[in-house]
């Protein structure tokens, strides 16, 4: 495998740099029934509509319409340590959805005045059905929306990262959001107000065990049932069907786009040699954006 990677790397197939960000000023929020705190419809000054997905921030699921949404909601409840709130799944789910609603309301409030987005128009589809683009959103008073939501405990620092409009690296942006999350947790803001700190380690441990079992099951699968996936265009949920790829690694694959060859994926954190070997037969690099 190492020989294959070396051979691909010497064929002029270097990892391409991400596309530059485009600044779109005087954007407005378009009210919709499906919007949540981190994904919503915007209209540019020229009248063009885009559904944007925030870099770096993940609000609790507000509109749960399928099993994928329900699974994410369960993982988010465990992350915030509220899975056993009210001593019943029904009350915990009700609380979680209400927090998702608060995040949507906060976003609507912060974007009541014209705002600026920076985007490279990178595909941010989660389930492969709804077209979205990743973006940084700056409010009318100059605040970063992702930072504002995380600071208020209405989102976790999670998702796809990249260099910010101000030139901060994706890794540093991720660390800064993690620091804001830690402060929100310390102050008991938003979702953190309801965290059961005694049970949180066990809840997160349960989530990790579940993910490990899923990785084990998919890692052992040698025959991929679907068509080959293009890692440059596949949605998050599509990438998660690959052996050994969970949500965090899927987000990292999206973050590192574009890829010209299998060798490029070796640079993605969480993808080691064994995983790369398993992925080789499932991926298609014939179309590079």
Write a concise synopsis of the structure shown:
The chain is α+β, with helices and mostly antiparallel strands and 289 residues long. The chain has helices at residues 2-9, 67-79, 89-110, 145-151, 170-187, 200-219, 236-239, 247-255, 273-279; strands at 22-30, 39-43, 49-54, 57-58, 115-119, 133-138, 156-157. The chain is 37% helix and 12% strand.
Number of E strands? 7
Q: So how many helices? A: 9
Counting structural domains, the number is: 2
CATH topology call of the largest domain: OB fold (Dihydrolipoamide Acetyltransferase, E2P)
Widest beta sheet: strand line-up: 1-2-3-6-5
- Mean pLDDT over the residues: 87
Order of helices and strands: HEEEEHHEEHEHHHHH
Oligomerization status of the protein chains: single chain
- Please summarize the sheet with the most strands: 5 strands, mixed, barrel
CA-based gyration radius: 19 Å
Kindly provide the name of the CATH class of the largest domain: Mainly Beta
CA-based shape = globular
CATH architecture identity of the largest domain: Beta Barrel
């Amino acid at each position: 495998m190492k020989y294959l990677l070396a051979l691909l790397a010497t064929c002029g197939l270097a990892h391409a740099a991400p596309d530059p960000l485009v600044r779109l000023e005087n954007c407005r929020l378009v009210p919709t029934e499906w919007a949540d705190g981190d994904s919503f419809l915007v209209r540019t000054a020229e009248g063009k509509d885009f559904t944007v997905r925030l870099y770096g921030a993940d609000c609790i699921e507000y509109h749960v319409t399928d099993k994928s949404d329900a699974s994410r909601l369960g993982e988010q409840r465990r992350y915030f340590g509220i899975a056993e709130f009210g001593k019943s799944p029904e009350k915990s789910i009700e609380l979680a959805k209400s927090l998702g609603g608060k995040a949507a309301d906060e976003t609507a409030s912060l974007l009541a005045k014209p705002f600026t987005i920076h985007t490279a128009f990178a595909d941010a589809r989660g389930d492969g059905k709804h077209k979205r683009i990743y973006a940084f959103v700056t409010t009318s008073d100059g605040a970063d929306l992702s930072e504002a939501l995380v600071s208020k405990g209405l989102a976790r620092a999670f998702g796809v990262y990249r260099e910010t409009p101000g030139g901060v690296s994706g890794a540093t942006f991720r660390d800064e959001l993690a620091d804001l999350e830690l402060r929100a947790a310390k102050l008991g803001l938003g979702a953190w107000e309801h965290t059961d700190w005694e049970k949180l380690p066990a809840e997160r441990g349960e989530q990790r065990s579940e993910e490990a079992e899923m990785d084990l099951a998919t890692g052992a699968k040698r025959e991929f049932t679907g068509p080959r996936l293009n890692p440059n265009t596949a949605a998050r949920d599509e990438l998660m069907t690959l052996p050994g790829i969970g949500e965090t690694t899927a987000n990292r694959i999206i973050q590192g786009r574009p890829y010209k060859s299998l060798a490029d994926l070796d640079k993605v954190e969480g993808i080691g040699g064994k995983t790369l070997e398993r992925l080789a037969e499932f991926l298609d690099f014939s179309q590079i954006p």
